[in-house]
Amino acid sequence: MNATHFHFHDPYQPLDSPVHRLDPRVKLILALGFILTATLLPVGAWLSYALLGAAAWMTAHLSGLGIRNVLRRSVLALPFVLAALPVVFTAPGPSWLTLSLGPWQIPVRVEGVIRFLSVLLKSWLSLQIAVILVGTTAFPDLLAAMRAMGVPRFLVMTFGLMWRYLFLLVDEAIRMLRAREARSIAPEVPGHRVGGTLAWRAQVTGRMVGTLFLRTLERGERIYMAMVARGYDGEVRMLPMPPLSGPDRALLAGGLLFLIGILLLGWVSRALFL
Amino acid sequence: MSLLIEAEGLVYIYPDGHPALQGVSLRIQRGEKIALVGPNGAGKSTLLLVLGGLLRPTAGILRVEGEEVGNGDPRRLRAKAGLVFQDPDDQLFSPTVFDDVAFGPIYQGLPEWEVRERVHRALEAVGMAWAASRISHHLSVGEKKRVAIATVLALRPELMLLDEPTAGLDPRGRRELIRLLHRLPQTMLVATHDMRLVAELFPRVIVMDQGRIVADGPAHQILRDEALLEAHGLEPP
Questions:
Q1: Are B216 and B27 in contact (CB under 8 A)?
Q2: Is B133 part of any domain?
Q3: CA distances from A86 to A75, A99, A106, A109 (A)
Q4: Among positive and negative, which fits the CA dihedral B88, B93, B95, B97?
Q5: Residue B213 lies in a domain
Q6: How buried is residue B41: exposed, middle or buried, by Cβ count under 10 Å (0-12/13-18/19+)?
Q7: Which helix (H) or strand (E) holds A107?
Q8: Would you call A230 and B107 a contact, using CB atoms and an 8 Å cutoff?
C-alpha cells in the first residue's frame, strides 16, 4: 500500500500454464475436494499427507507459481493454527515429557503432539491448494465457476460486488486519513501540545467512520440506479457457461478418484495399525 | 427530424421536500446534440434521471415519440434513454469489462450470441475492445469513462444522457472522449461544466438554474451572451 492508492494485491498471476488453462470449474471442485480430503483424513495419516503434499507441490510446479512462492504465501496464514496448540497438553493418554513452570507441572502428551502436527499439516496443505487456486484463476472466473456449481446467485453477486468495491472503499478511507493528516500540523508556539484531547480525537475518528458509511450508502444507491437504468429487476441473470470439454471431465474424474484413494488409504491404514 | 422527447412542466420534488425541478419544458428532436449547462444544484442531474426513467416526475408530462411515459412503465423509458453516470465507478459494478457491457443486453433477454455481438460492437465503438476481459478497477479514468459509455451503447438507446462526461479527465482523455462523442450518431443530452466542450460539440445549449430552464437556443448565441452566462454562474469558453 502506498499513500495515494491502495495497491491492488490481486493474488492472481497471469501466466500461461496447464493449470491456468484448466477450466475454473474443474479447479474449484478439485481444490474444494482437496481441502475436504485433508479435513476428513484421520490423525497421523502421514503417508496420505505426504501424497497430498506431493500433489500440491506438483501442481505448484506445473502452474509456474513455483513451490517456494506457494509455500511462502501459505505460511502467512499459519499463525491461526496456534489455536490448536492447547491440544498438546489436553489430549488424553500417556505424557511424553513434563514441563515445569514454577509450581506447575504441565504434561506434554504423545497423542496431543500427533494431533497438533496433524492439524498443522492438514491446514498447511489446504492453504497451499487455496493459494494455487487463486494464483491461477482470475477472480471473475472463480465467480463464474461458483455460479456454475450452483452456489446461490445472490451470494455470487454479493462476492462480485464486494470484490469490485472493497478497494475503492479502502482508497476512500486512505484519502480521508490523508486529509486529516494534512491538517494535523505542528504547533504555532514551539513546544505547545498538539492533537487535542483523546475524547476529541476519538470523536473525529468516529465521525470519519460515519462519513465513510454515508458515502458508501450513497454510492450503493448510485450503483443500484446504474443497474436499474440498464434493466436490473431484482433477478440475477448471467450468461451460461459452456459444457466441460472431454479432457477437463477426464481430469476432474481422475483428480477426484485420486483424492478418494488418498482418503481410503488414510482410514484403511489406520484401521490396520490400530 | 422527428420529435423524440417532449417534456411539459416537469416538476420533481425530492422526498425531503427539496424542489429540484420546478416546471421544465423542452423538446428534443431525433439526432440533436444538446448541452445542458448551469451551476451546481441547478437540477441538471435530476433532469437526466427523470428523462432516463429513474425518477418519476412529481408533476408534468413526459412523452417519448408522442407517447406519454411519465407515469407509465419506467422500463419503457429506460429502454429508449441510456444514462451514463458521472462517476464511472458507479456505472461499472461488474467484475470484468465484458460482464458490465453485457449486463444490459442480458437483462433485455437477448440470446447469448447477440449479447456477445452487442458487447463486441459497443466496445469497438469506444475503442475498448482490447479490454473485454480486463478488470474495471485496473483501468484509467478515461478508459473507465469509455467503457461506461459502451455499457449504454450495448442497449442501443435512441437518446444518450451523459452527466459530466469530461470531469476528472486529463487533456488527452478529454480529447479522446470529445472525439468519441462527436463520432457517435445517437441523440445526446449532456450535462457539463466544460464550456469549451460545449462550444466544440453542441449546436444547441440549454441553461438551467434553480430547477428551471432559463435559456434554450443555438450555442453560438448563448455562449456569446456574457450577461446571461454570468447571471447563472457560468463563464464563456
A1: no
A2: yes
A3: 20, 14, 11, 11
A4: negative
A5: yes
A6: middle
A7: strand A104-109
A8: yes
Q: Could you give the angle at the alpha carbon of A10 between the alpha carbons of A259 and A147, nearest 5°?
A: 55
Hey, are the CB atoms on B112 and A233 less than 8 Å from each other?
no
Residues of the domain holding B79:
3-231
The residue assigned the cell 507441572 is A105
| A79 in reach of chain B (CB within 8 A) | no
Whether B236 is in a domain gets the answer no
Work out how many domains chain B is built from and give that number: 1
Classify residue B237: in a domain, yes or no.
Answer: no
Q: Are B152 and B160 in contact (CB under 8 A)?
A: yes
What is chain A's pLDDT, residue by residue, as a tens digit (274 residues)?
344 455 556 788 888 998 999 999 999 999 999 999 999 999 888 999 999 999 999 999 999 988 998 998 888 777 888 888 888 787 777 777 777 777 777 788 888 888 888 989 999 999 999 999 999 998 889 999 998 888 998 899 899 898 888 888 888 888 888 888 777 776 777 777 666 778 888 888 888 888 889 988 999 999 999 999 888 888 888 888 888 889 999 999 999 999 999 999 999 888 887 6
Return the CATH number at B50: 3.40.50.300
pLDDT in tens, B168-185: 899 998 999 999 999 999
User: In chain A, how long is the greatest CA-to-CA distance?
Assistant: 81
Q: Identify which of B49, B87, B93 has the shortest CB distance to residue A161.
A: B93
User: Is the Cβ pair A139, B95 closer than 8 Å?
Assistant: yes
Flag if A226 and B52 touch (Cβ within 8 Å).
no
| Helix ranges (DSSP H) in chain B | 44-51, 74-80, 88-91, 97-107, 112-125, 141-153, 171-183, 195-201, 219-222, 226-231
